[in-house]
Amino acid sequence: MDDISTNVELEVLKRYAEASRQPDAALCCPVTYDARYLEAIPAEILERDYGCGDPSRYVRKDDVVLDLGSGAGKICYIASQIVGPEGRVIGVDFNPAMLKLARKHRTRVAKRIGWANVEFRRGRIQDLRTDLDAFERRLANRPIRSIADFDAAEAARREAGLAKPLVADRSIDIVISNCVLNLVCPEDKPQLFREMHRVLKPGGRVAISDIVSDEEVPAHLREDPTLWSGCVSGAYQEREFLRAFENAGFYGIAIDKRDAQPWQTVEGIEFRSVTVTAYKGKEGPCLERNQAVIYKGPWSAVHDDDGHVLERGVATAVCDKTFRLYTSEPYARDIIPVPPRVEVPLDEAGAFDCARDARRDPRETKGTDYKTTSEPAAQCCPESSCC
User: Fold this and answer.
1) Would you say 349 and 288 are in contact if contact means Cβ atoms under 8 Å apart?
2) Which pick of 85, 322, 335, 384 has the fewest CB atoms within 10 Å?
């Protein structure tokens, strides 16, 4: 980590530690939350909420939730009530002062809502393998006094991260975060997105509220630790923010909310809150099972993150994996599935030809020997005459 990155991390740690003791109005945007969920949360937490959106509204009953940069714990305690007693909520934060505040009220909130399903873990959100509390205990027992000690500690940290990671692979239904990703140093951000992808279950999703800029942030602003801790200098340019999800392997990426008015303007650059949703699960082989999909419209054609082009009203050949993606959220409402008349067993499916013509001939789904002739359907027009 270079000097600038070190200064940024120390400034963020310092400022948010102070904000855990004394509210800092400059660290948050106005956000309206569902009042039902706030009643169970102590005022000490509500007064120290530093966010720019409400990713908790994407949480569902029984979800296993991971909140990155959980701070004082407000979003975690809201999510706890949404998921119910069968769900779980994990908050990860780097700041001991914020973690202390969040953990302080676990028992009180649990009594108010009727169940205890929230825990807070100390870690860097760009490294969800390293349990910093466990690593710190190791360092207390085996202080670093030499390069050899340092190398041994690093080896132990990596080994523990693989054997018993802070957050396990494929263990999370939804990753949420509220105005925290911009606080991570630039060189660590690609790993941050890869870590989100790693911990999600196949079919899992993210809902990330953060600050983005409409222009690239110049170097002299990026090198200002105070502006960085204030959620300004570390902001992604908004197109690059979406590209970061693409590069990490997510699909179905969408801007669900974008504030019309900027939260702050610095040297003519507008910084505003957005909430982005995305999904994990497009990994795996492409198998041919004679499936097709029809894009309903209203656009004449669309293309996805893997280069598939769907023309409106055209039966488009897709592999089994893509068929499953398109017939699930967030695509299903825009897609008409066209399964084959006779299903191809998965263990008999061959490789899908990704270079083939995009259109699926009706005989591929019906079968070349299909010769059926039928009478008109008895209920073709249930509300009026067919003729």
Assistant:
1) yes
2) 384
Q: 195 near 204, Cβ under 8 Å?
A: no
235 and 318 within one domain: no
Residues 201 and 350 in one domain: no
Peptide bond preceding 285 in cis form (omega within 30 of 0): no
- What amino acid occupies position 147? I
Digit-coded pLDDT (tens) for 288-342: 999 999 999 999 999 988 888 999 999 999 999 999 999 999 999 999 999 999 9
Which residues of the chain are modeled with pLDDT < 50? 1-3
pTM, full prediction: 0.88
Alpha-carbon distance of 355 to 350, in angstroms, equals: 15
Q: Per the structure, how many domains does the chain have?
A: 2
Q: Which domain range does residue 29 map to? A: 3-129+165-279
- Backbone torsion region of residue 33, taken as left when φ is above 0, otherwise alpha when ψ lies between -120 and 50, otherwise beta: beta
Domain end marker among 259, 279, 299: 279
**CATH assignment at residue 170:** 3.40.50.150
pLDDT value at position 28? Answer: 60
| Same domain membership, residue 316 and residue 294 | yes
CB 293 within 8 A of CB 323: yes
Residue 113 sits at the vertex; the CA angle it makes with 108 and 115, to the nearest 5 degrees, is 85
- Indicate the residue among 237, 259, 279 that finishes a domain: 279
Residue ranges with strand state E in the chain: 64-68, 88-93, 118-122, 172-178, 200-213, 236-237, 251-258, 264-266, 269-279, 287-288, 291-295, 301-303, 309-311, 315-318, 335-338, 350-351
How many CA atoms within 13 Å lie on the side-chain side of 69? Answer: 25
Q: pLDDT tens-digit profile of 113-125?
A: 999 999 999 999 9
Give me the pLDDT at residue 1, please.
47
- 82, amino acid identity: I
Kindly state whether residues 117 and 74 are assigned to the same domain.
yes
DSSP per residue, 289-330: --EEEEE--SSSEEE-TT--EEEBT-EEEE-HHHHHHHTSTT
Q: What are the beta bridge partners of residue 210?
A: 274
Name 73's Cβ contacts closer than 8 Å, sequence gap at least 6: 45, 91, 101, 102, 103, 105, 118, 120
pLDDT of 314 reads 96
